[in-house]
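As a warm-up, study this chain.
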Amino acid sequence: MIKRYGMQPAKPTCNQRHHGLLIVCEGLSHAPLERISVAITGCIILREVYSLANAKIIQEKQEAVNVIQSKLTSSSSTVIADYRGLNVAQVTELRKQLREAGVDFQVLKNSLVRRATEGTELTALNDILTGPTAIAFSGDDAVAPAKILNDFAKKNDALKLKGGVVEGKVVDNEQIKALAELPSREGLLSMLLSVLQAPVRNFALAVKAVGEKQEAGA
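Now compare it with the structure written out below.
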């Protein structure tokens, strides 16, 4: 390197950036070969560690997206709500009610849910994925999550119903509220049992009336 009068030679610096990771190695041109080798090896190792960690994060996110997509497409109903303003005690009570009804209640990142709707017929959900998002998934009882969340919202103004999915179709908050007014699964079964039993009771009463009439004629 040529020296100029009154000036010191510039100190060589090597900056290497890899996906946001900055590694600085200074003065390597004046360092022994062993030091240069160690420094380069260290940079490579750090880069590989970062790459492995990043790959693991990407894999975990994809697995989470797959689980969400499976729940969205396989649940009989899904209700999305904004829970801002609910305190810890209220959220705990809401979770308890939903859990007792067999409903899975999760707070999820909107970005993951949006990715989960890709390639499905549920992309319209993206319009309501704003702010903190809590989702209730029900496998068997399509009415349960809507009824529980709607009843809870009537007593707690902070909880807002945003919409959801019913039998594979995207619905808005008004449709969720309408669903909440329907009888629960247990209520429907009770009504069905009453309908099925009615002809039997009527037949039994008719047979009894005929028997009583014959006895009276005798």
